[in-house]
């Protein structure tokens, strides 16, 4: 090994780290050790040099051909530089090398795992994943921060986005529909921090969510009647509680004869509907020119002959256009909002309208909100990671300058004498006031729940 280090080579630092670990640690598997990542880094540099020397274009090669080539070059690298690993460990290096060449390196397996919802990276050694709403530490890691940045930029290159010192923060929609947020030094003190939100290729249907016990049959019936009856629905909840999944599912109740326009900051919705027009906001150039915000898109969508407008998330000045659309013939529109309760959702709407420059009185604003929103569906994420509808609240009107509401359903969980937990969504005995549900009274009676 010393003779090898004395030779002129393109990666002496990697080889010195490998040489320093002549006896691999046995308290962790080889593929999780620093030795593995150092060998992989050296093999990667070695292979790229070989590709350049041989003037090869491996981008058009089949996966089997790349795999065989990686095995041969890994063996050559290990033999030429006297790397102290056995044949099984060398095979693991070559497999990881294929993922470096054809995919996203250490993230490849996580990206293909259907159970993984979020990938959270806090520096090159610290990777967490969310499965079924529960965070857990992953064994995946990177060699160093440079390795991590190389993989992140591989996500960004196809969509024309940059991540460097002049642009140290990026939020982007990935080609597969996922979302990536990355922030690097000097804004991130602990190294590059990356958040990847994955989305299902096939969105959940209402029946899927019913099977997962997000709600029960009476709640399912009310949601179906509300969408088919063209009620305006606001889905409220915290981060990663299932708002987008529920919005996707509710869209399947929209009649196929209607035209739906979705407006989002970053396109995440995947509505199961044949006639959907998807609009996405655009960031401006270096000097801010060319910016197209959600408010502009909502305003423009009114000129596109929509039957329903779906705003992915209300978070700014677009709230005024959305409320006006709901009040001017676009019944059946839906949106989501970050709030901890239905009442907080109403307060947040008022606050956003104030920030957007609403010129009327508080009373007139509350009347407009009350006439626009029919139902607020509150979602919560339980301690075990499950998402459930915690309540369904109807907005009735205004009284004494306050938006009046009534709760129709509420999630309850109780443990019986045998220690078994039971969940239910009892109806609270109030009948929906909106005349939009009148054609569905019999349907709601048959579903149960005591609301019809």
From TrEMBL:
Residues 102-381 form the Bacterial type II secretion system protein E domain. Signal peptide: none annotated. SUPFAM superfamilies: P-loop containing nucleoside triphosphate hydrolases (SSF52540). It comes from the Bacteria. Coiled coil: none annotated. Pfam families: T2SSE. PANTHER family: TWITCHING MOTILITY PROTEIN PILT (PTHR30486), TYPE II_IV SECRETION SYSTEM ATPASE (PTHR30486:SF15). Belongs to the GSP E family. This is CpaF family protein.
